[in-house]
């Protein structure tokens, strides 16, 4: 199964169109969007972005980011593409999602306590599931800010250490583009699509294992 992973679109519809043009050649089975679809905007701005994915015709799921308006989650649910606090199965692979972020110094729109993050993850997860999270796990290559602070979630890290999901797709920290591992778990922050970054992931549905990840830039 080929997954296109994107995050941090921040309302850049032109970048979505470029992504989807590139993606035609890669023939994805599924697109996963790890939040910040808009830049502090609501459902109308979010729909203008999401309609590009709808028109592309490939299945996709999304979570909201901490910079998405309060009504963006409602839109995702109406479109039946929300993964926040949910689990779906696609091609025999379970995918669970958590949107928003841990608590930040900036009081953004969607923020959750570490206890809430832990509860959402443990409630929905089944062994072998992929995790789609806006926030990255704490103390990794993919949560380090430009000033050197690790801004990820402690609960997500603890969850990964205990449950060892095969793949975690995240975003949130724009400068922390990369791939990391915690035990057997592969973690990828594709980088912000607003700057032309995304990732292509080949995932073995039977073995529930990542075969290959490529960080892409256009």
From TrEMBL:
Its cofactor is a divalent metal cation. Residues 1-175 form the Calcineurin-like phosphoesterase domain. It holds the Pfam family Metallophos. Keywords: Metal-binding. Its EC number is 3.1.4.-. One of its GO terms (molecular function) is hydrolase activity. It is an enzyme of class 3 (hydrolase). Belongs to the metallophosphoesterase superfamily. YfcE family. This is Phosphoesterase. It comes from Thermococcus litoralis (strain ATCC 51850 / DSM 5473 / JCM 8560 / NS-C).
């Amino acid at each position: 199964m080929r997954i296109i992973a994107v995050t941090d679109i921040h309302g850049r519809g032109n970048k979505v169109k470029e992504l989807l043009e590139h993606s035609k050649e890669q023939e994805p089975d599924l697109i996963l969007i790890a939040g910040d679809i808009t830049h502090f905007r609501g459902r109308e701005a979010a729909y203008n972005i999401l309609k590009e994915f709808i028109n592309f015709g490939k299945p996709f799921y999304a979570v909201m980011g901490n910079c998405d308006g309060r009504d963006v989650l409602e839109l995702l649910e109406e479109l039946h593409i929300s993964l926040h606090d949910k689990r779906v199965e696609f091609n025999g692979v379970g995918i669970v999602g958590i949107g928003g972020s841990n608590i930040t110094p900036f009081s953004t729109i969607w923020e959750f306590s570490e206890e809430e993050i832990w509860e959402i993850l443990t409630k929905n997860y089944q062994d072998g599931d992929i995790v789609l999270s806006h926030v990255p796990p704490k103390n990794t290559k993919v949560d380090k800010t430009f000033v050197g602070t690790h801004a990820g979630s402690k609960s997500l890290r603890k969850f990964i250490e205990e449950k060892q999901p095969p793949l975690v797709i995240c975003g949130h920290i724009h400068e922390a583009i990369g791939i990391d591992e915690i035990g057997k778990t592969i973690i990828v922050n594709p980088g912000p699509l607003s700057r032309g970054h995304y990732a292509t992931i080949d995932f073995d549905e039977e073995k529930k294992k990542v075969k290959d990840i490529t960080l892409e830039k256009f």
